[in-house]
Each structure stands twice: as structure tokens, then as C-alpha cells.
Amino acid sequence: DTWRYAFEEAMEEVQGKFAQKFKEEIEANSDHEIQLFPFGTLGESDSIMEQTQSGILQFVDQSPGFTGALIPEAQVFFVPYLLPQDTATLATFFEDSKAINEMFPPLYAEQGLELLTMFPEGEVMMTTTEAVAGPEDLDEVKFRVMTNPLLVESYKAFGATPTPLPWGEVYGALQTGIIQGQENPAFYIESTKMYEVTDHITRTGHNNFTTAVMANKEFFDGLSDEDKSLVTNAIDAAFDYIIAYQEGLTDASLAKVMEAKPSMTITTLTEEQRAPFKATAASVEEEFLKIGGDQAGAILEQLKADLAAAQ
Ligand code: 6CS
User: Fold this and answer.
1) What is the average per-residue pLDDT within 79-93?
2) Looking at the 3D structure of the chain, how many domains does it have?
3) Residues 212-260: tens digit of each pLDDT
4) Mean pLDDT of the chain, nearest integer
């Protein structure tokens, strides 16, 4: 039989690399086949999620940046400066976190989803048409964010005018001047040619991109114990693979951006310049407790404990 797996990125981007490794593991260890659907083949992120919930797809990679509208607790990943940038710490955190591995699965289950894993995709950077050294430079800047209410709040607190859009509209919106900024990890800025439609990259250090892989729950529950282990083992192998794959990826991607467009500026904000952005964390956290669902407080507390343990 064939299992269908859709993701939000291209085949050679991070989610695609993860999916390819998963497919390789499943097919090497069973008679099942995996059919991969990269971005653009089945619609935007929201649409592949709906197709998974309804059982048309068996697997989906959707980032909390979009799932936050469905599972309010998943917005926790948009409290600024919550996640560290150190990749070893992040890997340990995602592997061992009680919040992620024990508290989130029942919340995903309520939406008909079996949460299989979450993994990091790299330091989030701003790319803008004008240089950014502090929140005052974001004043009047229409800044594209994923469709996540807490991310909207966070960019409001940063001083920008947040504009939630599905990914497919971002390049065109920058090109036509409807928006003047967006945020993403370096590999994505490079592969999707964001440098063609923006001139400045700013490293504020406020987040590391998190994504999640899920299965349709009814499908997963109906698998034999052997097939369930097959799936979880393939996910574990793909997790280890994707952590290793991303080693050095940020620097290599930024070098490629500079090669493609030497006039691009890349600025790492100093601790002093980051201070006003960091100062927004407390108010965004408070907002999360209001809009992050019944489990918001418990999830935030556990996540902080898990991060402390990983560090
Ligand atoms: O910004 C976005 O919408 C996209 N960013 C990444 C890194 N992956 C998928 C997502 O759709």
C-alpha cells in the first residue's frame, strides 16, 4: 500500500530532506510505499493539514506557525527569546522535552492527529527592504508572519504592522510592496530567493523555527504494533538525520546569499540592540497565557523546565 505524506517545503529543503529520509527508512524496512507531496503540489499549509485530518493524507509536516490557529497551545513557540539557538541544546530539548513528548500529543489527538515529532529548522532572521537596528525601524513596516495569533502579537510588540499570509503569497507581496519584511531561517531565505525582494537580513536571535510531523490519528491507531514501531523508528532515524544535516547549514546558506547578491547586508544585533526586542517577551508571554488555550500555563511552565534541563 501507499502512504501519502505532504510537507510545507520543497524536496531539497529541510522538511523535504526529513521526509525523504523517513520514506527511505519505511521502504527499506517494510513493503509500504511513501508518496511525497512537497509544497505547491497539494495547496498551502492549512490545506494539507485539513487533508490529513480528513484522512486523504496519512502524514503531514505542519509548523506551529500555522497549527497555532487550530491548537492554541502550539503558539508557545512564538514567545520571543524562549528557545536557545545552540543546536545541540535544541536537539536534546526536542528529544527529551516532557511538554513536547507528553503534553502536546493529547492536544493534537483532539484534532485527529498523532504527533510524531517536532524538530528545529534553524535561527529565524528578519529580511526587510530597509535596515533594522531596533524596534523603531519596524514602525510602519508591514511584516509578513505565519497565520498565528501569538506571532502577530509578538510583531506588534516589536513595533511592526504584522501581516499574516500563507507562504505562497510572500514573494509576490514583497515584490509588489504590499509588505516590506518577513522572517525565516537562513536556508529558506536562500532557497526561496528572499534576497531578490529584500535587501537586509537582521539576526535578532528571537526565535528558532520549529516544525512538527503528524499522522492521521485513525490511520495510526489502526496500524499493527509492528507498523507503529516501523513508523516511530523511521521518525527517530529522520530526526537524527535532520539534526546532522543542518550542521553548518546557516553559515553555508548566508554565504550563498552573499554570493548571489553581494549588496545584501547581514547584521547580527548586539546584546544592547536586542534588549528592546527582549523586553517584549514578558508581555507576549502574558498574551500567550490568555490566548494559548486551557493548557497554556502548564505547557509554558513545563517547556521552561525542559529547556533548563537541556541546557
Ligand atoms: O514561513 C513559512 O511560511 C514557511 N517557512 C518555513 C521555514 N517552512 C515552511 C513554512 O511554510
Assistant:
1) 97
2) 1
3) 999 999 999 999 999 999 999 999 999 999 999 999 999 999 999 999 9
4) 98
C-alpha of residue 226 to centroid of ligand 1, in Å: 33
Domain of 110, CATH number, reads 3.40.190.170
Query: Shortest CA distance to 19 belongs to which of 55, 56, 54, 58?
Result: 58
Nearest ligand 1 atom to alpha carbon 183 = 1
Residue 69 pLDDT more than 90? Answer: no
Substitution candidate for ligand 1 out of 7, 8, 12 with most atoms within 8 A of CB: 8
Task: State in Å: Cα 61 to ligand 1 middle.
Answer: 11
pLDDT band at 293 (very low <50, low <70, confident <90, very high): very high
**By alpha-carbon position, which residue is closest to atom 4 of ligand 1?**
167
Instruction: Catalogue the E-assigned strands of the chain.
Output: 2-6, 33-37, 59-62, 113-128, 142-145, 161-164, 181-185, 200-203, 208-216, 265-268
Residue range(s) defining the domain that contains residue 152: 2-310
